[in-house]
Amino acid sequence: MVNSDKFNQLEEIGIGSGFEATLCNMLEDTVLFHEFSHAEITTLARYVHAYRAPRGTLLMKEGERDTYICIITQGRVDILKESQGFEKKKLATIREGSAIGEMSVVDNFPHSASAMTATDAEIVLLTKANLQRICDEYPSLGNKLLWRLAWQLSSRLRQTSGVLIDYL
User: Fold this and answer.
1) Would you kindly state where each structural domain of the chain is located, as residue ranges?
2) What is the rounded CA–CA span in Å between residue 35 and residue 1?
3) Alpha carbon of 18 to those of 30, 53, 117, 159: distances in Å?
4) Residue 87 φ then ψ, to 5°
5) Which phi and psi angles does 10 have, rounded to 5°?
6) Residue 80 to residues 7, 58, 74, 90, 167: CA-CA distances in angstroms?
7) Are 30 and 90 in contact (CB under 8 A)?
8) Tens digit of pLDDT per residue, the chain (168 long)?
9) E strand residue ranges, the chain
10) What distance in Å separates the CA atoms of residue 120 and residue 50, rounded to the nearest whole number?
11) Which CATH number describes the domain made up of 5-156?
């Protein structure tokens, strides 16, 4: 369970071995894990927690430091950035199957933007501590996971660069 006032709107979906099959299905349906075997997904499922988040739930706040990756398994999440006039502007909408928060987990810097559920959503959280445990206990799986996160970061950077060129 996540211990944060930020998540008082979250409802834990399930826990324990009775929930493992559902959690595996949630992860297998994501772009992030589509290259992972069922055995790898089953191992990962032991390190994550799944939650329901109603529309309007703040998952990450710009400027704050959090130590988790949020995988959207159902619904959509808006990425919001404060302008100089303190107005929040939508940068992107992240659809199910993608992860958010990986930048802060990797570089230990505060979030560069906020993330708020645009619809009711289901999310899976992987803490930095559990990511480190995966890397320590299952180095091959940890390596594969880190490469997939790097792939996602690279993909987003390329997309952002493509959009940015229109403004230059």
Assistant:
1) 5-156
2) 27
3) 21, 21, 27, 39
4) -90, 135
5) -80, 145
6) 18, 10, 19, 4, 19
7) no
8) 444 566 678 898 977 677 889 999 999 988 889 899 999 999 999 999 999 999 999 999 999 988 899 999 999 999 999 877 778 889 889 999 899 998 888 888 999 999 999 999 999 999 999 999 999 999 999 999 999 988 888 887 777 777 667 766
9) 11-14, 49-53, 58-60, 68-74, 76-82, 88-95, 99-100, 114-117, 121-127
10) 14
11) 2.60.120.10
Residue 60 structure tokens: 């990450």
The answer to whether the beta carbons of residues 127 and 101 sit under 8 Å apart is no
Rounded to two decimals, the pTM is 0.85
Contact at 8 Å (CB) between 88 and 56?
Answer: no
Q: How far apart are CA 36 and CA 41, in angstroms?
A: 6
The single residue listed with the structure tokens 């993608």 is 98
